[in-house]
From TrEMBL, chain A:
The lineage of its organism: Bacteria, Bacillati, Actinomycetota, Actinomycetes, Frankiales. The chain crosses the membrane at residues 31-53, 88-114, 121-142. This is Putative membrane protein. InterPro entries: DUF1634. Keywords: Membrane, Transmembrane, Transmembrane helix. Residues 1-22 are annotated as: Disordered. It comes from the Bacteria.
TrEMBL record, chain B:
It is a multi-pass membrane protein. It comes from the Bacteria. It comes from Frankia torreyi. The lineage of its organism: Bacteria, Bacillati, Actinomycetota, Actinomycetes, Frankiales. It is found in: Cell membrane. This is Probable membrane transporter protein.
């Protein structure tokens, strides 16, 4: 058993403990999450506004119909075409893609910060998480 | 009801559910799927696809503050994300092959589990002696957390040691699978894994869970987005409503009698879980 530490310890690349507020990479990750979250939410809001302006016709690939039904569902592969045709659904989808990519960007930011701080093990773990997210995308596309 | 009115109604309801989820520490996603399916009669798969996007948005909105204040342990979060992402991808892929009735049943069971977690009297076990852990030592997962003495405004910083990382990783795989399967954050499973098994302070566990929920949700979201299980208008309205509600909830936390609210919503949670179970088993 390891006794509980009794006093705060300083930040150190090799030390056993790290103060949360000054944690390596925390500031960068927070910044990435703020920017990505705001950008994604803004795109979703813009898409919804465009849809309302289009009177709902832009919901379903430009064909109208029930905006909440299964027919209005979009795949990521529909994104490019939808944006080219100015579809509101595609703008919302882009916002959601930005939102989904934001946590991954946060992990990448943490990995870079750890690499700069010469914390190779942690940087390696971040790379594994990113590779798993890429794998998730590939497996989802293959469904 | 016209589609536009329905979307406005869904957004408003998601503001309320996000607010309550934030006040009760469950996250907005817990209520989203039952509301969309039971109240609005939407397809459970599309409801889950919308919920998973709101989970990512909610985490991105709340986590920066936890990181700034030093509550979230970034090293623990990224380490455990290896397990939650694997679980989430497996859960999201599995969800595409399960019947709606099975999804309702699993959701009902998970809601009962969440209600039990709400009832549990959480005690901060940090600061006690813990078994040595090689993974935690190698990755320098140990940290410090702030502690407020009862009845005072004095905050002091206390170091803690992380233990049983392998157990935490196993529990997180299960939490990730449930998250991917049902489109929820699974905070009710993640917090106990860190609090009980890995002995992180409760506040650190909650903040770290919130940070992890974003990455877990992103892994599932990518599968749902690629598979075409996301309706943009629905998911957009749900995400915006939940984020606004979660922010509102965090502001109301100081003035709302959360104890009384907890009892009321424990009952609501149990009623919803019975409804979901009935749909699944009927």
């Amino acid at each position: 058993m390891v006794p509980a530490p009794t006093s705060p310890t300083s930040t150190s690349p090799t030390g056993a403990s790290e103060t949360g507020a000054s944690e390596t990479g925390a500031r960068q990750v927070a910044l990435v999450l703020r920017i990505g979250g705001a950008l994604g939410a803004a795109l979703v809001l813009a898409g919804l506004a465009v849809a309302v302006a289009q009177g709902g016709a832009g919901w379903l690939h430009g064909a109208g119909g029930d905006p909440l039904g299964g027919g209005a569902a979009m795949r990521l592969s529909d994104l490019g075409g939808g944006l080219r045709h100015g579809r509101a659904g595609a703008v919302i989808l882009l916002g959601m893609l930005v939102l989904a990519a934001t946590p991954a960007a946060g992990v990448a930011a943490a990995g870079c910060a750890w690499l700069r701080a010469r914390r190779a093990w942690l940087a390696g773990v971040a790379v594994i998480v990113l590779l798993l997210l890429v794998l998730a995308s590939v497996l989802g596309a293959a469904e | 009801m016209s589609p536009l009115a329905e979307i406005v109604a869904i957004t408003a309801v998601c503001v309320a559910s996000g607010c309550l989820g934030s006040l009760l520490g469950l996250g907005g996603g817990t209520f989203v799927v039952p509301i969309l399916t039971l109240a609005f009669g939407l397809d459970v798969r599309l409801a889950i696809g919308a919920s998973v996007i709101s989970v990512v948005a909610g985490s991105a909105a709340a986590s920066p503050r936890y990181l700034d204040e030093g509550f979230a342990n970034l090293r623990v979060a990224v380490t455990l994300e290896v397990a939650t992402v694997i679980g989430a991808v497996a859960g999201a892929l599995l969800a595409g092959h399960l019947s709606a009735r099975t999804l309702y049943t699993v959701f009902g069971v998970v809601l009962v589990f969440s209600a039990v977690q709400m009832l549990r009297n959480r005690q901060d076990r940090a600061g006690t002696a813990v078994p040595a852990d090689r993974i935690a030592d190698t990755l320098s997962l140990h940290g410090t957390g702030t502690h407020t003495a009862a009845g005072t405004a004095v905050r002091d910083v206390r170091p803690y040691r992380v233990t049983r990382t392998a157990t935490g990783l196993t529990m997180m795989t299960a939490a990730g699978a449930v998250s991917g399967l049902l489109g929820i954050g699974s905070g009710a499973m993640k917090v106990p894994a860190m609090d009980l098994a890995m002995r992180l302070p409760l506040k650190v566990s909650t903040a770290t869970s919130n940070l992890m929920i974003g990455v877990t949700g992103a892994a599932s979201a990518v599968v749902y987005l690629q598979r075409g299980d996301v309706v943009p208008a629905l998911a957009g309205a749900v995400a915006l409503g939940t984020v606004v509600g979660a922010r509102l909830g965090s502001r109301l936390l100081a003035v709302v009698p959360v104890g009384a609210l907890r009892v009321i919503f424990l009952v609501v949670l149990l009623v919803i879980s019975v409804q979901m179970l009935l749909r699944g088993l009927a």
